[in-house]
Design a protein that fits this description.
Strand order of the largest sheet: 1-2-3-4
Number of domains: 1
Largest sheet: 4 strands, antiparallel
Radius of gyration: 17 Å
Distance between the termini: 63 Å
Structural class: alpha+beta
Number of strands: 4
Strand content: 25-35%
């Protein structure tokens, strides 16, 4: 008898949308309250140049929030079991 194993394949569809920066910041405020993550405190640390990245994780249900700064923008990623969302916020527009 030939042994079999499960094979999982994940396909990814990319979708591009646009949003106003103030709407993204408002969504981040909601996420901060829902998850209890200090998102805006971490963004302040990035803006001040005290760190170049941060992350928050939660195991159940799986959630991963990551932020890093480059010369012009802060790149924020939220990963869940359902997918990944990326935001880019200009540094000068951070609160």
């Amino acid at each position: 008898m030939t042994p079999f194993t499960k094979v999982y394949r994940r396909t990814t569809e990319k979708e591009l949308n646009y949003a106003r920066t103030r709407d993204i910041l408002e969504e981040l405020r909601v996420l901060e309250k829902q998850k209890g993550w200090a998102i805006f405190e971490a963004l302040k640390v990035l803006k001040e140049g005290k760190a170049d990245s941060f992350s928050f994780t939660k195991d159940t249900p799986y959630q991963y929030f990551y932020g890093r700064i480059n010369e012009e923008v802060v790149i924020l990623k939220l990963k869940t079991r359902k997918g990944e969302t990326e935001f880019r916020v200009p540094i000068e527009q951070l609160v």
